[in-house]
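Task card 7
Instruction: Convert sequence to structure tokens.
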Amino acid sequence: WGDGKGKTTAAAGLSLRAAGAGKHVLFVQFFKTGNSSEIKPLKQLETVRTMHSAIPHHRFSKMDEEERVQARDDYRRLLREALAGARGDVDLLVLDEAVSACNREIISEETLLDFLRTKPERLEVVLTGRAPSDALLSLADYVTEMRKIKHPYDRGVRARRGIEF
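Output:
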């Protein structure tokens, strides 16, 4: 978690490691369309499945209320499908930007917490995003904070394909 770059990249790297060990991975993205550069190679791996909303939603801060309602519906459905799928033969579940989705009440943190409390013991779960709640932190086995010290965006450099996305 954190305001620094690398959260999704680290989750993708762990997914690659798990797939390399023959594990089944479900990589789910909130607030993203599923076409970022780190997802493309994951989609090519036999034991990795990716999920994202079928409707591309733009930045939450730029959504009007109707768009936010639609995003909530889409992302809550995505979460339900992901959590149901993770109870199968999945070894690693990545919920990319789930923490941020909880913070914006796009997905239900209580639903996520209930799942984490009752998940299959063998299932590893990775959550990324910003500012996790104390409840999420207390259930975590690992917590890593990515803290931005300096970023080209601060100088007005736009996100670059293959570097930031």
